Amino acid sequence: MAIPFGSVAWAEALSAEINCSSEYRNAAARWGDGFNGNVLLVFDADTAMPRRAVLFVELARGACGGASFVDDPSDARAGFALRGPFSVWKDILDRKTLAATAILTGRLKIEGDRMTLLKHTAAHRALIACAAAIETDYPA
Amino acid sequence: MDPLYAPLAAAVEGVVSTPDQLTAEHLTNYGRIFHWTPRFVVRPRSAADVVALVGFARTHRLSLTTRGMAHSQSQLAINRDGILVDMTSMDGIGAVDTQALTVDVEAGVVWRDLVHHLKRFDLVPRVLTNNLGVTVGGTLAMAGIGVASFKHGSQGDNVVEMDVVTGDGKISTCSPSASPELFWGAIAGLGAFGVITRARLQLRRMKAMTRTYYLLYDDLRVFLDDARMAMDSGRFDHLESWGAPCAQGTRPVGGVRQVFAKWLYPFHLTVEYDPGDEPDDAALLAGLTPYDNVYTDDAPTMDFLERMVPVFELWKKAGTWEFMHPWVECILPWETAADCIEQVLQDTPPGIQVGGHVLLWPAKGATSRSRNFMRPEGENLVGFGLLPAVPQKFWDDVKERFANVSRLMLAFGAKRYLSGWIDFTPDDWKEHFGARWDELTVLKRRFDPDGVLNPGFLPFEAPRGAPASRP
Hints:
The complex is a heterodimer of chains A (140) and B (471).
Chain A: E1 3-4, H1 8-19, H2 22-27, E2 39-44, E3 53-60, E4 63-70, E5 80-85, H3 86-93, H4 99-104, E6 109-111, H5 114-118, H6 121-132, E7 136-137
Parallel strand pairs in A: 1-7, 2-5
Antiparallel strand pairs in A: 2-3, 3-4, 5-6
Chain B: H1 5-11, E1 15-17, E2 40-43, H2 47-60, E3 64-67, E4 83-86, E5 93-97, E6 102-106, H3 111-118, E7 123-125, H4 136-140, H5 149-152, E8 159-166, E9 171-174, H6 180-186, E10 194-205, E11 209-217, H7 220-233, E12 238-253, E13 256-273, H8 281-285, E14 292-300, H9 301-305, H10 309-318, E15 328-333, H11 334-345, E16 357-364, E17 380-387, H12 395-411, E18 415-416, H13 426-433, H14 436-447
Parallel strand pairs in B: 2-4, 3-4
Antiparallel strand pairs in B: 1-2, 5-6, 6-10, 7-10, 8-9, 8-10, 11-13, 11-14, 12-13, 12-16, 15-17, 15-18, 16-17
């Protein structure tokens, strides 16, 4: 059954998906090791979604300590943020666009140390794959 | 009959062909990504023919594209609706000066033919590309790098002087000291400013034999440390290395299972020697820390120079030579090289070895004076390239991934090597050339005022009335 995007249940489903993903566990084994690996995914409002959504994900060494939608798009607990219009995110989660393409072409903006992020491309891809794996009910 | 055929044929001594006489080869290059049909193909007989062709192109507002063995993979060596100049007809090898160690060659000479010609003098060009089946003019217009570049720079750095037919229809002799703007404009100039018709190349003495140590590394960073030591030691004449995949089965990548590999790094270190003066293996390898010392090969130097022939023959027999070749090659800063290479290779399936390979080449930034051969700052650099052969039917599936490899390289501070598949935006081009871009724009206006030479690759603003399509 599809889970509404932006709900507590969706965030919990993402956390569970990450923690049972061998791809994420391997790819992100060094993510957050010695630095703050917590990530904000900022889904900016656009024609496809009228309200901004901000997802905070606690990530360290291949595991997720929890995920929740928050209000602050600059939540200080995060070491990194990936920010972009919802329609861009939707294309990524629908696997129409590679997350790498969106990041490397600037359609998704990076906040945090860019070089650290670039050194862990497989970790972000695996994170996105976990999100894409959730059967989601997106805003109409 | 094309109305311009007769006047064009009358203007040159060389052979003029029309599209109905062409083979499919003339419509593309080794990349097989772009397919353009020229209005004419001309095989010039002399530099005077090239002068006449440029004049004809200007008069009739036709573009003019130069083509050697067409080993590049983007919009080079192919022409749409204009004149494709097949320079391989200008293949004369001139005087060898055994004192000054130089040779004069026409631009269409294939490096292999030159190497075999020079063997009788025990001389050889200072830098040779891995593939000897490419032309002198072609690689000089690109830069031309090989396994001795860490010592001698690019092939373009080893040119004493050249004759260049510029886009204004003049032929000039230039060198690093005489008309240096034209000389350094034409070297690695992608044919945008002039057509190289003759080059005087610097040579070196060649010893009869080579010994190559086949070392293997299982750790990229250890390999790079040893590569730097090998460069700095001055012990070796040639250095060559690869990424070699050891397939591990499948794993999910972005949620989709694909074959993946643990990457190993073969490193081949070569010295030339004369019989009776064999190298001291222990001294040469002292301080190096490979995972394995796999093999030591003694071979005539000529065989060493031709070492890639069996590989290319295999690719041809297997049919992969005819596949698409979206090669993505770059020069990385030493400081970011390991991180970039690891990120790229973790996603590179071992199947890239089918008709292709992964190249690594340690380099020294200061060995090149070329103004157009862009590379990152720094004493030590690392060349890195994914050289795949992609069946045409898979291109749409993989194009974005290769584009991202290029983007990732650039994000790590790399400069692309331009013979491969380049999918730059105009801003990417400006970023690539940096401050040099404005200089190139000035050179273009000066040496090719009508914008006839090699359009379609470098995004120069076309002058009014420049050839764009068939009139």
